[in-house]
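Dear colleague,

Thank you for sharing your sequence with our group. We've completed the structure prediction you requested, and as agreed, I am returning the results in plain text so they can be pasted directly into your records. Please verify that the sequence below matches your submission; if there's any discrepancy, let me know and we will rerun it promptly.
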Amino acid sequence: MRKTVISGKRRKSATKFLTVHEPFTSKELKDSHLIAETLLDCIRTGDLGAFREVLVSHLMTVNKVAVAKKAGLGRRTLYDLIDPKKNFNPELSTVSAVIRALAA
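Please find the predicted structure tokens below.
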């Protein structure tokens, strides 16, 4: 198979509009107030994919039992949110409980 040739001018212009994404550090992922604000921003923009990524990343770095207890949810509920094989469609009450627990 022949490799596609891209001109230098096209190559430069294609990367011109890309924004640099700086991932959260481990310290930032443990900051529950920052995560709560980010989750609320994801809700405002309607970005469910980013919401799940941020929530899962945060839950992977903190004690899930403590978060579940603080939120008044079952531990299994948080593990279901993390499980990539399960459909991510949490109820509003679950989302609000998690965000309230993180913001407190």
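Summary note from our side: The longest helix spans residues 32-45.

Kind regards,
the structure core
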